[in-house]
Design brief:
This protein is of the alpha/beta class. The strands form two sheets. An eight-stranded mixed β-sheet has the order 3-2-1-4-5-6-7-8, sandwiched between helices. The chain has a two-stranded antiparallel sheet with strand order 9-10. The protein is globular and about 70 Å long.
Length: 308
């Protein structure tokens, strides 16, 4: 077993299946004690189950330390109790990986407000609530300590839909884009106490992606032979999460990293591409077609100012 995360205590939400399950197993492989959180609901957020118990059992059978948790992260009291469990059962919390999510895909003309609200509740509210509870704990620790710093790592989950958009996922894409904004802001707010906050954009065949027409049946990360490489394995991004959670990554914060298959990509978001100056005059709407076509969207850059 690796010692990269030895002595650290981690929470992984949505860890009953797929990507989150891969994260929990990977963190445990590197020595972390893992609280495996999963409500056990369907991919649409319906019902509950004991999936977290199974994953915690796998970690324990492999010689690691883990405990299950069945909280609904969208519920404030339950999300707070999840963070409290780390302190009550293991005396500390060092790593928070927010992965819990559901899908309710429909084109916007067929999507209900309930479909939108529930997806936002799990992804955005759920991520915010666990971060909120962890941040309060860490800030209190920092204020009580001599250095004013703590060891804290947050890794949130975005997706290609949130970064690039995807048909039929106005709810899911909006949620995943919101998580990027949350991540960037948290990285600024928590920097003073030593906590890093990053976002991972994973990929692979999971229960969520399997809802797409024609998608293959997913395998869980522990159901694959250890020496098998499958580019659609959802746990291929988990080593990146483990590294971001480690002491080696203390200088990395406020980053969005895609890890799909064998590729790791450092993402850059809404940065200025091209601009054109009005030279101190109000824009005339009748001229803007020419300005956009020639100077912003076109290849002719008369009067163009690039970068900042």
């Amino acid at each position: 077993m690796s010692r990269l995360l030895e002595g650290k205590v981690a929470i992984v939400t949505g860890a009953g299946h797929g990507i989150g399950r891969g994260h929990a197993l990977e963190l445990a492989r590197h020595g972390a004690t893992v609280i495996v959180n999963d409500l056990g609901s369907s991919v649409r957020g319906e019902g509950s189950g004991r999936d977290a118990e199974k994953v915690a059992g796998i970690i324990t059978e492999r010689g690691g330390k883990a405990a299950p948790n069945f909280a609904d992260v969208g519920d404030e009291a339950q999300a707070t109790a999840l963070v409290d469990q780390a302190y009550e059962q293991f005396g500390r919390l060092d790593i928070l990986v927010n992965n819990a999510g559901i899908v309710r895909d429909r084109a916007i003309w067929n999507m209900s407000a309930e479909d939108f609200d529930l997806v936002m509740r799990v992804h955005v509210r759920g991520t915010w609530l666990t971060c909120h509870a962890a941040a309060q704990r860490w800030r209190d620790q920092a204020k009580a300590g001599d250095s004013g710093k703590v060891y804290g790592r947050i890794v949130n989950t975005t997706s290609g839909a949130g970064l690039l958009g995807n048909f039929g996922q106005t709810n899911y894409a909006a949620a995943k884009a919101a998580i990027v904004g949350l991540t960037l802001t948290l990285s600024l707010e928590l920097a003073s106490i030593g906590v890093t906050v990053n976002a991972i954009g994973p990929g692979g065949i999971t229960r969520l992606s399997a809802t797409m027409p024609g998608a293959p049946t997913p395998l869980e990360p522990d159901e694959r032979p250890e020496d098998e490489y499958d580019p659609k394995d959802p746990s291929l991004c988990s080593p990146v999460v483990a590294w971001l959670a480690s002491g080696e990554a203390g200088h990395v914060s406020g980053q969005v990293i895609r890890a799909v298959g064998g590729d790791i990509q450092l993402m850059r978001g809404w940065t200025e591409n091209r601009s054109v100056s009005g030279e101190g005059r109000r824009w005339d709407a009748t001229r803007l077609g020419q300005v956009f076509g020639r100077d912003l969207f076109g290849t002719q850059a008369a009067g163009l100012r690039l970068g900042g």
